[in-house]
């Protein structure tokens, strides 16, 4: 029995953690149902790893096993494809079609929506890393190093690329975001130390490329997983700077409609 005028369940917004979990689950399902996103986040990194590890197409400049050189770079590529390229394109079109505008007036706060998107990115990256690690191990990869260093690199890399992706999606038109995000993906694939060692570039160019987030992420992962190096403080510092700049600029300039 309930008193007159009392409603069950009690009306009102759900608790904030539950809203973020629900939105994160929705974002993850939408990403996994999108064929183009799966091509970008799963198929392309897997093909790059298998193709360049088994076929002598490009001189990677690697010392020792090719797969030992490529696996860390492809893990960095997976973070780039999900946190930057995929998120920028998806968010850009959500903004164009008014999805973000409508979500912005829901009980879920704007920072909660961004937190949910970040959770979806992290879930996707975990699946990518598990898949790519399994493929690399099957190809003969022998990783070394401290898992904590790897985790810190991946987390800071995700933060840096997420900030840059959201900045692009929140300031450019959807079509421009689509073109720019794919162009940046291709440029960083070639010039970010993913499949070709930065040692192949001239000294001045190499010094500039080493400051890119993809170079810091791929180089840091390679130093740890291939060479068994300790905490890569320089690479972590570069990623931290990009994360602060990218997320700060996204928070300042992101337009919801």
Tags for this model:
ABC2_TM, antibiotic resistance, ABC_2_transport, membrane, single chain, mainly alpha, 257 residues, ABC transporter permease
The chain-level mean pLDDT equals: 86
Largest β-sheet summary: none
* Stretches with pLDDT under 50, minimum 5 residues: none
Structural class: mainly alpha
Radius of gyration from CA coordinates: 20 Å
Number of helices: 10
* Oligomeric state, counting identical vs distinct chains: single chain
Strand content: under 5%
Termini distance? 46 Å
CA-based shape: globular
Percentage of residues assigned to helices: over 70%
Number of E strands: 0
SSE succession: HHHHHHHHHH
Organism: Streptomyces rugosispiralis
Domain ABC transmembrane type-2: 36-257
Subcellular location: Membrane
Protein name: ABC transporter permease
List the helices and strands and how they pair.
Layout lengths: L15 H18 L1 H20 L11 H31 L2 H5 L6 H29 L8 H25 L2 H18 L11 H7 L3 H13 L7 H21 L4
Describe it for me?
The protein is mostly helical. Helices cover 73% and strands 0% of the residues. The protein has ten helices and no strands. The protein has helices at residues 16-33, 35-54, 66-96, 99-103, 110-138, 147-171, 174-191, 203-209, 213-225, 233-253. Residues 36-257 form the ABC transmembrane type-2 domain. The chain crosses the membrane at residues 38-58, 70-93, 114-142, 148-169, 176-198, 236-254. This is ABC transporter permease. Pfam families: ABC2_membrane_3 (PF12698).
């Amino acid at each position: 029995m309930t008193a007159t005028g009392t409603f069950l369940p009690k009306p009102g917004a759900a608790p904030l953690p539950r809203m973020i979990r629900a939105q994160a689950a929705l974002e993850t399902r939408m990403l996994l149902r999108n064929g183009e996103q799966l091509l970008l986040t799963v198929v392309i990194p897997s093909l790059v790893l298998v193709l360049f590890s088994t076929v002598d197409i490009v001189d990677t400049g690697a010392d020792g096993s090719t797969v030992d050189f490529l696996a860390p770079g492809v893990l960095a590529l997976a973070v780039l494809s999900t946190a930057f390229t995929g998120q920028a394109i998806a968010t850009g079109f959500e903004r164009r079609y008014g999805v973000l505008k409508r979500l912005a007036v829901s009980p879920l706060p704007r920072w909660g929506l961004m937190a949910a998107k970040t959770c979806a990115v992290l879930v996707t990256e975990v699946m990518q890393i598990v898949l790519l690690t399994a493929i690399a191990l099957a190809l003969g990869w022998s990783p070394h190093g401290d898992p904590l260093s790897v985790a810190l690199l991946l987390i800071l890399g995700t933060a840096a690329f997420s900030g840059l992706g959201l900045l692009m999606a929140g300031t450019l038109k959807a079509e421009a975001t689509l073109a720019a995000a794919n162009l940046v993906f291709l440029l960083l694939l070639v010039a970010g130390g993913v499949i070709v060692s930065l040692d192949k570039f001239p000294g001045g160019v190499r010094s500039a490329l080493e400051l890119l987030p993809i170079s810091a992420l791929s180089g840091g992962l390679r130093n740890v997983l291939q060479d068994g190096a300790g905490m890569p403080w320089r690479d972590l510092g570069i990623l931290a700077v990009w994360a602060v700049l990218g997320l700060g600029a996204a928070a300042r300039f992101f337009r919801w409609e």
